[in-house]
Structure prediction request, 669 residues.
Amino acid sequence: MPFHPQGLTSLKPSGRVNPNLHALAHGGGPILTKRIPSWPYADPKDRLIVSYDEYVKTGGYVGLRKALAMKPDAVTEEVKKSVLRGRGGAGFPTGLKWTFLPKLATNDQGQEADPGQRYLAVNADESEPGTFKDRLLMDYDPHLLLEGIAIACYACRIKTAFIFIRGEYHHQAHVLEQAIAEAYQHGVFGPKGLLNGENTARGGSFSVDCHVHRGAGAYICGEETALLEGLEGKRGWPRIKPPFPAVKGLFGKPTIINNVETLAHLPSIIEFGADWFCKQGVASTLPGNNPPSFGTKLMGVSGHVARPGVYECELGIPLRVLVEELCGGIRNGKRFKGAIAGGVSMGILGPDQYDADMDFDIGRKHNVLGLGTAGPTIFDEDTDMVAVARNIARFFKHESCGQCTPCREGSGWLYQLLGRIEEGHAKTRDLDLALEIATSMGSMPGTTICGLADGNNWAVRTIMNKYWSEFEKRVQPTHVAVKMTVGASAKG
Amino acid sequence: MAWTTKDSGGMKVARRAEPYLTQAMRDELTRDILPRYETTRAALLPTLHMLQHKHGWIPAQAMLEAAEFLKLAPAEVIDTASFYEEYWLKPKGKHLVQVCRSIACEFCGQPEITQAVRAKLGIDVGETTDDGKFTLIELECIGACAGAPAILIDHTLHEGVTPEAIPALLDNVPDPH
Prediction:
């Protein structure tokens, strides 16, 4: 499938909110960022927080209204049909995740049994280095997230949603709280029921409560079960699965955990339909029955590019097009050396992988862990890759929660070892040792409870393997020629 | 973060007569926060945030008061509070300067930023100035990679900072509350 960088030909002069947004979304313009001026459509300088009124004026809450006219299972079915894959890193199909909730019995009149208390936990604990895409949505278009939350809650018959936002996002938490207050005021949430108690296809109104819960500076809380622990007021230690959260999650109740961007896709999927959604993005080209990469994706590009920022692109855009055409190329006219695929735990794309397609196939095609959050950090030719590996190892050492021994101990050793290599104090055999530690501390499945150790492993191992000669240059040979100091040769 | 073990069993808690968890805070928690959750423990993070916001850090007495108020064991409160990096269980300066040291920031000039702050304040990373005005720390990704290098001064994010801009930035820090 030939790739069309979205809207590159329709570069528009910067304007505030475009009145034709609605049409634009149909015609291949931005979808998630249609209210947030972004390159290449508009100048990010014009960004403003979208209020409730402006949101509604530009087609807001239409998707939710449409969802309420559908049976909850029909909403789930539509999301399943769109094959929307989770935008938080793992790429798990969202609709499928929802179906893991316990089934509800129906009586003779087709009336559903009371679902009881269930929870939606919104993962806004965006802390992976190189990832800052959810922040954009929460900064400027909070109602898009709230509408997505309302749709997800209705589809899953959830009455309470918690937005778990990382502690460092002070401003974003404030914006969300204001937006939630606005939403309550206008009857979106609250005891009356969604959209002022609008009658639903399920029968009667359906009410949802939504709250912000601030984290306090722990990367691990982005792991879904650690997030639930954080919500329960405990230390963020991931739980052993099963039971999976959909069966036994927050406070022991069925819980769905979705990423901010995933939820932000829901209003347009419901409004325009799954078929429309599937027209964007690419199908999988891997052999076997691999799920496709449909839809657009927020890609946060950082590092050595001329114009870093969040770009909304169709999945499947080649990294080269993303960097060279949208981000203005590598800054100062330098050459490309490598890129973190999408958050440091995904590993690195080497100098010969500049043409990698940014879709969910990337992991198996290019020897990285996966697409992650699709937030590439680009490195130019002057970058010291040993330092990159050391930086990443330090991050994981710092953020390991300390629960599992391989990760707690391994991450510390790895950091020390890479520090020694960077300083030039290491021997050749230390390179093998580093690889061995990386591999044995995290190789799915089984050595640790969560995937943090795997991220550490993939990051360090792919950097070392793809830039081996750089590491070799920094170490001293393990065996050193010994000068003879006895016998006849001692004099010479 | 997470992994600190120390003998605090025999620690003597310095007490003051005036409670850290004020009546107004208790009322706000009872009215707005507690009804959201199924357990009182779930309100612990918001309670600790509130305490830190008011006092700048979380003294041991405040944790005891929080435990009593939320009907938890003090150990449960310490367990949670000591895990999360954002909670200060020791006093810090009036202003907190946090320099991001993660991947994008480090390779876009963070070392020079840290150096500029150290030079301006005359302290090393992890230290507080003698007048108690500034504490400097380095932390992992603050989600501002496009604006690297980025620093957080109290709750305000500064993106694309240069070493030259640091002195003026630190001279004009607004009051945190």
Observations:
- The mean pLDDT of chain B is 93.
- The radius of gyration of chain B is 18 Å.
